[in-house]
Amino acid sequence: MDSFTVTVNGQPREVQGARPHTTLLNWLRDGGLTGCKEGCAEGECGACAVLVSRPDGRGGTRLESVNACLVMLPAMNGQEVITAEGLGTPNHLHPVQHEMAVRGGSQCGYCTPGFVVSMAAEYYRPERREGEHHAPNGFDIHSLSGNLCRCTGYRPIQDAAHALGTPPESDTIAMLRTRPAPAPQALHLSGPDGDFHRPADLPEALDLLAEHPDATLLAGGTDWGVEVNIRHARAGVTIAVDALDELRELEWHDDHVRIGAGLNLSEIERRLDGRIPLMAEWFPQFASRLIRNSATLGGNLGTASPIGDSPPTLLALDASLILASRGGERDVPLSEFFKGYRQTELRDGELIRAVRIPLPLAPVTGFYKYAKRRFDDISSVAVGIAMELDGNMVGRIRIGLGGVAATPIRALKAEAALIGQPWTERTVREAARLMGQEGTPLSDHRASAEYRAAMLEQALLKFFYEKTEVVGG
Ligand SMILES: Cc1cc2nc3c(=O)[nH]c(=O)nc-3n(C[C@H](O)[C@H](O)[C@H](O)COP(=O)(O)OP(=O)(O)OC[C@H]3O[C@@H](n4cnc5c(N)ncnc54)[C@H](O)[C@@H]3O)c2cc1C
Ligand code: FES
Ligand code: FES
């Protein structure tokens, strides 16, 4: 098959001769929809934001904002997109466009369609309730954290967001939410620039992976899209795994919770609804809403980046990974998954199917991320801690670290200094000193080795003072 359809602003558009590395952004712009812009082509600015229709889990549709610059066009086979042009027209502005215009939320206008789209996603978010997120209209201003503006300043943009009401009954876009979202459709494209497969189910995906062990797995595309755009990476064979039902489970069992590797972080955050407090603390610190609407756990773990944020969190939670191949499945502790710089335990033909977190959860947890910016930035150092106290003694503690070695690691020296010891300032200070010696931190453009070591110490002390009652001694 070399053609497929994408519905854009309500109209089906046929894609002929699609290529595996064409981005949704370039295709939309080539088709005349130049509202969405390319600012950075790497997920940082939000100028390319569009709405996509996704299942809401209750038979309806959620309208979610994503970075079109990171979406590979064939991954949109049969899907539905709304751009800023589809929200309103110059004579009939959408409420979001109206508020941005009358409150001075736009100057040069380059960023404006992207802001409008992210704002529209929040306008239509079904859970938005008055008074939430410290805004009278319940608008979560962090939904705009992936959108950058160079000229207006954020105050008028915030004013526009906070002036929005609820969509009226007659709003045709709001009505889309009540009908089912388009289902994923299998696709096999073959061409001179490579092959693109969206398999129908996991067995087909594993067969393809067995045949093409060097294939690139594509989930949310927030890493792969940057490789394609900025480093001009190309894959001979791409296999899209994000829509596989078998990678989209989230199940609670008596002794563990299982989270599908193909779920994006926003979905996991919603579906967990705070029941894993360490993850609830971590999610808002991961990139932006635009990125979290696509990025998956499988992608974060599969790239084996030493500065990925999920490993410190999941190491603290003592997680293991369920790896699947045509030959069957195996369970590998996360602490044994990373083998070297960007090397993993994954064998040819294997993918990450799910993350398994044992229950019961340790009751005292904390996530500490040190980055140049408070939000929407990659970690210099990240620390996840999960602890259970037995009276005033440390019963169990696990500490996961990112950014201080070639792989994510556990802080084994600090853990050993704490287990079975009283949870007092004295023992914590000594453990923090040892924690500062964990790993082999490097100096780079994000942080110096000394700073990284100092932040490790600080994280444990912060955990002590913030999360537990301070005990003398
Ligand atoms: C602007 C921006 C901000 C970011 N901020 C953060 C941040 O704060 N913290 C952070 O940790 N990361 C951050 N990232 C990196 C990225 O978003 C994450 O690593 C994300 O989790 C990748 O998931 P994905 O689904 O998009 O992966 P994709 O890009 O789809 O895939 C990346 C790679 O992962 C592998 N892979 C994917 N799925 C599987 C699977 N099921 N099994 C095995 N391998 C698989 C493949 O090798 C694939 O090529 C950021 C990225 C951008 C662009
Ligand atoms: S162009 Fe900057 S996020 Fe897509
Ligand atoms: S209005 Fe110019 S970049 Fe935002």
From TrEMBL:
InterPro entries per record: 2Fe-2S-bd, 2Fe-2S-bd_dom_sf, 2Fe-2S_ferredoxin-like_sf, 2Fe-2S_ferredoxin-type, 2Fe2S_fd_BS, Beta-grasp_dom_sf, CO_DH_flav_C, CO_DH_flav_C_dom_sf
Record bears the keyword Oxidoreductase: yes
EC number: 1.17.1.4
UniProt-listed Gene3D superfamilies: 3.10.20.30, 3.30.465.10, [2Fe-2S]-binding domain, CO dehydrogenase flavoprotein, C-terminal domain, Uridine Diphospho-n-acetylenolpyruvylglucosamine Reductase, domain 2
Domain 2Fe-2S ferredoxin-type residues, every copy: 2-87
Pfam families in alphabetical order: CO_deh_flav_C, FAD_binding_5, Fer2, Fer2_2
SMART domains: CO_deh_flav_C (SM01092)
Keywords on record: FAD, Flavoprotein, Iron, Metal-binding, Oxidoreductase
Top-tier EC class: oxidoreductase
The keyword NADP is assigned to this record: no
GO molecular-function terms, A-Z: 2 iron, 2 sulfur cluster binding; FAD binding; metal ion binding; xanthine dehydrogenase activity
Top-level taxonomic group: Bacteria
FAD-binding PCMH-type domain boundaries: 189-362
Protein name as annotated: 2Fe-2S iron-sulfur cluster binding domain-containing protein
The organism's taxonomic lineage, starting at the top: Bacteria, Thermotogati, Deinococcota, Deinococci, Deinococcales
